[in-house]
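Suppose you are handed a protein chain with no further information: no name, no annotation, nothing but its sequence. What can you learn? This example shows the usual starting point.
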Amino acid sequence: MTVLYFAWLREQVGARSETLVLPDGVATVGQLIDVLAARGAGFATAFQKRASIRCAVNQEFADPGQRIQPGDEVAFFPPVTGG
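A reasonable first move is to predict its three-dimensional structure. Written in structure tokens, the prediction is:
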């Protein structure tokens, strides 16, 4: 699985992207966020305000209940605004 981080999430975790082996028992975006948030201070800070984080799975917007699987691309980014 490829995980991408954008904007302030990238700054907090210290990486633009990484390749992860999907841990056993992790089947949704929300469960992945739980695992990532437990990885250290930068990750905990990045995922502290989950309501302000958007996610896409394979380039399609996803909510925390979205199922994920090995080989997926999961991207985390701040809310998109326009004007």
